[in-house]
Amino acid sequence: MNRMIKGFIAGAAVAALLLGGSGTFALWIDTAAVAGADITAGTLTVKAGEGVWTDQTEAAINIADYRIVPGDTLTYQTLLDVEALGDNIKALLSVDKGQLTANSDSAEDKALEKILKEYTDVSAVEVSRHEGPAGPAPVRGDQSIDFELLQGSVQYQVIVTITFPAEYEDDDAAKTGSVNLSELGVKLTQHL
């Protein structure tokens, strides 16, 4: 009987080792294919044409020589060619204000940069569509535009507006300030 108890204990120990977390015990497993096919990523590209700067009188200006004063509104107009491929593609058009920078660390340059960044905006109107007539203007947002893009090539007239308000508090701080607009651009960001 002593031998039988020892054999039972030894067998239980072996079974415990085989069923443990580090053993080779496994339940049955199998796989089945699901219906599928190749999938291809879409694209979102944008290209800007030559643009024109004008002031509030709609006169063309040379932005490099222009001296902005309170009450001025400057606009930059260009054509934007957008290529959008994607079944659920949406994008946000905005001004890349990070490229609107003071020319130095002087108080005047920083003051003008602050004003112009605060009062720079963008608008756009669809001009033409490669596959069909132009559609309505995109939905307006807070200093940006939300596009429900359709697949294909679309052209928009984009207008960037920079305003120096006539009654801006502490606008004297911006006198003689200088801001670099040479890298100012618009960006189209895909979103969900």
From TrEMBL:
NCBIfam families: exp_by_SipW_III. This is Alternate signal-mediated exported protein, RER_14450 family. It comes from Cryobacterium levicorallinum.
